[in-house]
Amino acid sequence: MNLKKLFETQQVLRERIAYNGPDRFSKLVLALLVELGECANEHRSFKFWSTDQEPRTKKARQPYVDLEDAEFYNPMLEEYVDALHFVLELGIEKDYTPSTLNIWLVSEENITDSFLSVYEAVLEFELYSSPDNYDVLLFRFFELGLFLGFNWEQIEQAYYSKNQINHQRQDQGY
């Protein structure tokens, strides 16, 4: 995974959006927490009250008549890379943009603990922004992606695809 390129790509989108209000950092933190929740919702494993525990990994983008006309995507991966945009954005916001990352799988015992460890890392970074805490956030976030079953190539490809959609949304006044 080319972290440097991810940060550079995110910086371009950041410059297009150009919001610099005093509440920017707290809004980025909240946006990341929301996207993590949406990813967990697509994974479904925390929903002990539901018999439907299957992660949502395939969904049609638009309603279709013929299956051949359908365009499918992975909603869980898309929510994960939505969160990645905000993880990168937080690093840029604080001028912490590491170019390397060492990830080993997996220190958490289950997916619920992995999600919670990312939440904890986000909140720790919000309270005590430092390069070390950002490294922990990156580590926990990418560890979660591996735990969810994604590989580096899938994450990067999905990120760049969603980044393109985000630019289109900016063109349309989203």
Automatic annotation (TrEMBL):
Signal peptide segment: none
SUPFAM superfamilies assigned to the protein according to its UniProt record, in alphabetical order: all-alpha NTP pyrophosphatases
Stored Pfam families: dUTPase_2
Species of origin: Metabacillus lacus
Entry-linked InterPro entries: dUTPase/dCTP_pyrophosphatase, UCP030140
Record-linked Gene3D superfamilies: Type II deoxyuridine triphosphatase
Protein name, as recorded: dUTPase
